[in-house]
């Protein structure tokens, strides 16, 4: 039979009870000594007896109301929590047991909420992946047929853009919940940019401000579809409204624990009020109320979607922040942990950094 350990709280209650009992006994001894004093008058003895008795009674009541009763109350609270009968009441009241306990419980509560959101997002992603894969080969085969007709007619530009479109769809639709290498993400960006250049011509340009074949960077793992949605935002909200077009620059910095990705454009920029709203949304994107509010928003995979997936996978220390000046351009900063092997970081749907 396993022997139960006496907790710190139990030891504290026992110690305080013993000390109070010893003090109570000491009061009784003093009462006996005072009553045996012949020099003290009868009235004085009665007064001293009443005072000491009231002192002992008050001490016992303080012990009961400040120590024993709260201990029994919290013991019952913990028992109900362990039995699964309560949760929120426990989180609201148990923080007053010890200094710092409230912060510990708040952090625990946030972890639970984050894990629930991760599981919910994973189920939604799996559903969407199944829905999108009902018959993707129909799309691929149709695009290949168009490409074949274009080649047979000598229309190489249409054949090339059709091939890029088929590759882009294949990458986007399959395995939406996985981590991929930065190299794969950059290949998808190249494909997407090829499609956009077919529309905008030489008005658009993309520049990589890092060594593209650097294995220390290119082989790192990041959430799939992290870069392309931000490139899309830069084109449609920054560069498309410029008559002379513009350029997008992608830079990366690697530290011991983090990888910082910067995507800059020289587009029209964002005004201060809108920028503050965007960054507030990115900072609070994992909040359930914020998620429900953004479900009604239409469009493709936007900044909030990318940032939310990053935070759900890696935690609140990671995500996206936007910097912008009206008439100058916009920079989107993405901070991610260094992940080299997917199997070392996944545990029950959540990534842990060691």
Topology, please?
Layout: H1 8-35, H2 42-82, H3 88-93, H4 101-132, H5 136-152, H6 156-173, E1 179-181, H7 182-200, E2 204-208, H8 215-218, E3 221-223, H9 228-239, E4 246-254, E5 258-265, H10 272-283, H11 288-294, H12 303-314, E6 319-325, E7 329-337, E8 346-347, E9 350-351
Parallel strand pairs: 2-4
Antiparallel strand pairs: 1-3, 4-5, 5-7, 6-7, 8-9
Structure write-up:
Keywords: Kinase, Membrane, Transferase, Transmembrane, Transmembrane helix. One of its GO terms (molecular function) is phosphorelay sensor kinase activity. One of its GO terms (cellular component) is membrane. InterPro entries: Bact_2-comp_sensor_kinase, HATPase_C_sf, HATPase_dom, Sig_transdc_His_kin_internal. 59% of the residues lie in helices and 14% in strands. It is of the alpha+beta class and 354 residues long. It folds into 2 domains: 91 residues, no CATH class; 200 residues, Heat Shock Protein 90 (2-Layer Sandwich). The strands form 3 sheets. A 5-stranded mixed β-sheet has the order 2-4-5-7-6. A two-stranded antiparallel sheet has the order 1-3. Strands 8-9 form a two-stranded antiparallel sheet. β6 and β7 form a beta hairpin. α1 runs antiparallel to α2 and α6 packs across α7. The C terminus is likely disordered.
> Which regions contain 5 or more consecutive residues with pLDDT less than 50?
295-301, 346-354
Average pLDDT number: 76
CATH superfamily of the largest domain: Histidine kinase-like ATPase, C-terminal domain
Topology pattern, helix = H, strand = E: HHHHHHEHEHEHEEHHHEEEE
| Termini gap | 37 Å
- The name CATH uses for the topology of the largest domain is Heat Shock Protein 90
Work out the count of structural domains.
2
Taking Cα atoms only, what radius of gyration do you get, to the nearest Å? Answer: 34 Å
| Count of helical regions | 12
Strand content: 5-15%
Strands of the widest sheet, in order across it, are 2-4-5-7-6
Task: Please identify the top-level CATH class of the largest domain.
Answer: Alpha Beta
Protein name: Two-component system sensor histidine kinase YesM
GO cellular component, one term: membrane
Organism: Lacrimispora xylanisolvens
Keywords: Kinase, Membrane, Transferase, Transmembrane, Transmembrane helix
């Amino acid at each position: 039979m396993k022997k139960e350990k006496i907790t710190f709280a139990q030891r504290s209650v026992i110690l305080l009870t013993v000390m109070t009992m010893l003090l109570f006994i000491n009061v009784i001894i003093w009462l006996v000594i005072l009553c045996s004093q012949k020099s003290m008058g009868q009235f004085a003895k009665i007064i001293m007896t009443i005072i000491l008795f009231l002192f002992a009674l008050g001490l016992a009541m303080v012990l009961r109301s400040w120590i024993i009763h709260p201990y029994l109350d919290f013991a019952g609270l913990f028992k109900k929590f362990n039995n699964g009968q309560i949760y929120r009441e426990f989180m609201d009241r148990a923080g007053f047991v010890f200094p710092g306990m409230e912060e510990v419980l708040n952090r625990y509560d946030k972890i639970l909420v984050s894990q629930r959101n991760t599981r919910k997002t994973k189920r939604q992603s799996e559903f969407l992946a199944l829905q999108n894969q009902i018959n993707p080969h129909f799309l691929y085969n149709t695009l290949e047929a168009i490409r074949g007709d274009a080649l047979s007619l000598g229309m190489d530009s249409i054949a090339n853009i059709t091939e890029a479109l088929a590759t882009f769809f294949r990458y986007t639709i399959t395995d939406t919940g996985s981590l991929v290498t930065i190299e794969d993400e950059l290949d998808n960006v190249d494909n997407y940019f090829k499609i956009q250049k077919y529309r905008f011509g030489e008005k658009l340009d993309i520049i990589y401000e890092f060594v593209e074949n650097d294995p220390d960077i290119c082989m790192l793992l990041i959430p799939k579809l992290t870069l392309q949605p931000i490139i899309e935002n830069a084109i449609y909200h920054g560069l498309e409204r410029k008559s002379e077009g513009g350029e997008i620059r992608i830079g990366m910095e690697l530290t011991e624990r983090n990888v910082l990705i910067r995507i800059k454009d020289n587009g029209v920029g964002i005004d201060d009020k809108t920028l503050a709203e965007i960054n507030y949304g990115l900072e609070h994107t994992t909040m359930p109320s914020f998620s429900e509010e953004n479900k009604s928003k239409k469009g493709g995979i936007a900044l909030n979607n990318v940032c939310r997936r990053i935070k759900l996978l890696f935690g609140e220390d990671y995500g996206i922040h936007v910097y912008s000046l009206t008439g100058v351009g916009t920079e989107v900063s993405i901070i991610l942990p260094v992940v080299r092997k997917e199997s070392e970081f996944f545990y029950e749907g959540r990534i842990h950094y060691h």
